[in-house]
Design a protein that fits this description.
Layout lengths: L5 E6 L10 E4 L13 E6 L2 E11 L12 E2 L8 H13 L4 H8 L11 E7 L3 H11 L4 H12 L4 E2 H8 L3 H9 L3 E7 L22 H13 L6 E6 L5 H14 L3 E5 L7 H10 L4 E4 L5 H12 L5 E4 L11 E7 L16 H12 L2 E6 L4 H8 L4 E5 L10 E6 H6 L8 H12 L3 E5 L9 E3 L16 E3 L4 E3 L6 E3 L12 E3 L4 H11 L5 E4 L9 H10 L5 E4 L12 E6 L3 H4 L6 H14 L9 E6 L5 H7 L3 H15 L6 E9 L2 H21 L6 E13 L2 E10 L6 H15 L4 E6 L6
Parallel strand pairs: 9-14, 9-15, 10-12, 10-13, 11-12, 13-14, 16-26, 17-24, 17-25, 23-24, 25-26
Antiparallel strand pairs: 1-2, 1-4, 3-4, 3-5, 6-7, 6-8, 18-22, 19-20, 20-21, 27-29, 27-30, 28-29
Helix pairs in contact: 1-2, 3-4, 4-5, 7-8, 18-19, 19-20, 21-22
This protein binds adenosine-5'-diphosphate and zinc ion (ZN) (2 copies).
The site of one zinc ion has 7 residues, from loops.
Length: 748
């Protein structure tokens, strides 16, 4: 007798060859148990494989379907929503379906259910612990750190957390136990939230909204019943966005719905976590990568079971198994961490939007420097713009001064610091206030900059800076491949002061120490924070004002929020400004605005000094004026003119090989094939640029070439592009690696 039920499944195997549903028969003993979203075991060739049910059928699609062997869990691991979502995601972001299914699965650790946790408890009051810590500092640094951290946590800390914070191993713990300073207890891990950040001045009482907040709140509230569901809260730091998120969360819960709260990075949002915990103590869950696998699974289960109704997490939390979502919050929606850089290369915003639509939920995005994509959405009426113009507590935005480094150069100052920044540093140190010096991440590929007039050559057709290559010496556009001789003399001012521009944090540190001997300086970059626990150490020495100057790359120092800082110096704004990326202007504006926000958080009015060779650049001028509007106007004009996102879509195809000519030739062949396939469907509006060497030309011994598609609506050709790319990758095998990135955030 033929089976009456069939299931289409996706095999749990990452391979192009099986990237489609296979049909199996549901045997009678499993009938009624298998649903869409079930994890099953199926025969495949001569093996057994795990697979996920994506559809049920009444009819066989092929002859001789084989039987499903078994079902793996008591409930479907994927909610039906995720079957749809993963399919959509894999098409949009050029991944295999199974790869996007993996995003939606419960965290590993199901088996490892760690129900117990080792907790380290201090045995003396904080003051005494601190004294001992000070005594040990020079002899046993790790032991000292352990005591220091326990002095801050009277109720103790899980060993795992303590270990991460201090970088200490078991061998540092043992002597302290022996000498009776602390003890270890094994306790049930009923709550993984011990690792709570210390936050001062958390507000849990309900505030009276300001008139601006009130106006925004009326709109948001209407969103729960009305048709306008997407909102962008555009408000400077401190304007009270978080308060609106919290109100909205309360509203959603009141309506019996759940809340998904997305942040760019957990570590940077202690205040929000604290507030959510205080307001929603029983229904809050934190999805955090630092939880142990067992704890992570526990949290996942709480969400899945509907016990946790307010979920906070970074990028991957957008796949939290919530049902009946009423609100999705996306704080700092412009941040790059929302885009995943490995396959599936999804953008959290797109997924959030998809889920919000699926659940008919309110989507609340917030930023002080919104992405152009989201801002354009408000113009196109997809999202509603809500503006908060004033800081709640009345702190004024800092004064920003732009220093023209060409003048400094002209005046014979060849140092890193302008006279103005140097003087400001002197004054700040004299007043015993603190200084942050930011160096935007070092340019990986250099560019030639004229120190006399500030000129940096751009590609005539792509409007991105040309990258300098030394052997053989030339300049090249990494979008279209345009190439020209390197400059000997500046074509604008005829000077010969052309320099391959780049500057490291170490050099800045040395300079500060030279000028201000005896001043305590800490440096925070990928070198100094490589050691575990180093981040916290640097953080606390600055927090406790043992250090007066912090030098850092902006990426790392992002969450720093210290009232003692009254001077922020941007040492070389040009570095981000001349990244070979069409978003360089946007990124510079965001970084400068963010850095400006670091100054004057306390009662003192802050000051910001931006050093640049291109003081006339709109990103710098707008940041100095605190004017997003100015920046936006100019940037939108440019993007439109050159048809860059958000006015177009981009697909970036990267081909890499251990042998440089192979990568290049392959990219050329691929381009020809893509061009042909698209011409068959009569596509003329799409531009296909390259192949050109990627700005990061060589990574891990592989040479990288890239092709760039640009078009108004590339998604409609995704299928064709996918077919060609995958046909090619099948032919070449491992020799060439191909990645496809839809709407990349970085074009490197
Ligand atoms: P943002 O999220 O925009 O950076 P926050 O929501 O964190 O700003 O608000 C900044 C500060 O102002 C916080 O300390 C917050 O508690 C406080 N705050 C927000 N709204 C109000 C209000 N209506 N009345 C008084 N204080 C407020
Ligand atoms: Zn010049
Ligand atoms: Zn170009």
């Amino acid at each position: 007798m033929a089976a009456e039920l069939y299931a289409r499944v996706i095999l749990d195997m990452v391979s192009n060859a099986v990237d489609r549903p296979f049909q199996y028969a549901v045997p009678s003993h499993l009938a009624g148990k298998i649903e869409v979203g079930s994890r099953v075991l199926v025969p495949f060739r001569s093996r057994q494989m795990v697979a996920y049910v994506v559809a049920l059928d009444r009819e066989p699609l092929i002859n001789n379907t084989r039987d499903i062997i078994d079902i793996q869990d008591p409930f479907p691991v994927l909610q039906p929503e995720f079957v749809e979502l993963s399919h959509w995601l894999s098409r949009r972001f050029f991944s295999r379906w199974i790869e996007s299914i993996h995003l939606c699965l419960p965290p590993a650790g199901e088996k490892a259910k760690a129900r117990h946790v080792e907790k380290v408890l201090p045995l003396f009051p904080p003051e005494i612990m601190r004294e001992e810590s000070a005594r040990l500092k020079s002899k046993a640094f790790r032991q000292a750190l352990i005591l220091e951290h326990l002095a801050l946590a009277e109720e103790g800390l899980p060993w795992r957390v303590l270990k991460a914070k201090t970088g200490a191993g078991r061998q540092s713990l043992v002597p302290l136990i022996k000498r009776g300073w602390l003890k270890i207890e094994t306790v049930p891990s009923e709550s993984p939230l011990w690792d709570k950040p210390q936050v001062e001045g958390t507000i849990s009482k309900k505030l009276t909204l300001t008139s601006e907040q009130e106006a925004a709140w009326r709109e948001i509230k209407e969103g729960f019943t009305g048709r306008q569901k997407q909102f962008l809260i555009f408000g400077v730091t401190g304007s009270g966005k978080t308060e609106l998120y919290l109100r909205a969360a309360e509203e959603a819960l009141k309506r019996g719905r759940t809340v998904l709260f997305l942040v760019p990075e957990i570590a940077l949002t202690p205040q929000i976590i604290e507030q959510l915990k205080t307001r929603f103590p029983d229904s809050f869950a934190l999805l955090h990568s630092s939880l142990s696998p067992g704890e992570r699974y526990e949290q996942w289960l709480r969400v899945k079971r509907g016990e946790a109704r307010v979920v906070l997490g970074a990028r991957s939390a957008v796949f939290a198994p919530l049902s009946n979502i009423g609100l999705i919050v996306m704080d700092e929606e412009h941040e790059n961490t929302y885009k995943q850089s490995e396959s599936p290369r999804y953008h959290t915003r797109d997924v959030a939007r998809w889920r919000a639509a699926y659940h008919d939920a309110v989507l609340l995005m917030g930023s002080a420097t919104p992405s152009l994509e989201t801002f354009l959405d408000t113009r196109r009426k997809k999202a509603k713009l809500l503006t908060l113009t004033r800081r709640v507590e009345g702190h004024r935005l800092p004064d920003v001064e732009v220093v023209d480094m060409r003048r400094e150069f002209g005046a014979g100052n060849r140092g890193i610091f302008s006279r103005s920044l140097r003087k400001a540093m002197e004054e700040t140190l004299h007043r015993q206030e603190q200084i942050m010096l930011f160096l935007n991440r070092r340019g990986f590929a250099g560019f030639q900059l004229c120190r006399q007039c500030g000129l940096v050559l751009k590609c005539p057709s792509c409007d991105v800076s040309l990258t300098y290559h030394s052997s053989p010496e030339h300049l090249q556009c990494h979008y279209c491949g345009y190439r020209r001789a390197a400059l000997q003399f500046c074509p604008q001012c005829k000077s010969r002061y052309l320099r391959n521009f780049g500057l490291g944090t170490q050099k800045v540190e040395r300079e500060v120490q030279n000028i201000f001997p005896g001043v305590e300086v800490v440096r925070m970059d990928s070198d100094t924070t490589a050691v575990r626990g180093a981040y916290d150490r640097i953080w606390s020495s600055f927090k406790e004002k043992r250090a007066s100057v912090l030098i850092g790359t902006q990426m790392i120092a992002k969450g720093f929020d210290f009232p003692g800082v009254t001077l922020v110096g941007i040492v070389a704004a040009d570095i981000t400004l001349h990244l070979p990326d069409f978003r360089a202007g946007e990124r510079t504006f965001q970084l400068l605005s963010q850095a400006a926000g670091r100054s004057g958080r306390g009662a003192q009015r802050g000051r910001v000094i931006i050093q640049t060779f291109t003081p006339w650049h709109y990103s710098i001028k707008a940041a100095a004026e605190h004017s997003y509007k100015d920046f936006l106007q100019e940037e939108l004009k440019r993007r439109k003119l050159l048809l860059y996102p958000p006015f177009s879509e981009i697909i970036l195809i990267n081909c890499s090989s251990l042998q440089e000519p192979k990568a290049r030739l392959f990219a050329e062949k691929l381009k020809a094939a893509l061009a042909e396939s698209l011409s068959i469907v009569g596509e003329k509006e799409t531009e296909l640029l390259g192949p050109s060497p990627a700005p990061l030309f060589k990574i891990k011994d592989r040479f990288r070439y890239q092709l760039i598609f640009k078009g108004i609506n590339l998604q409609q050709y995704a299928g064709i592009i996918r077919d060609v790319v995958w046909r090619f990758s099948q032919e070449t095998g491992e020799e060439i690696r191909i990645t496809v990135d839809f709407n990349p955030m970085m074009m490197l």
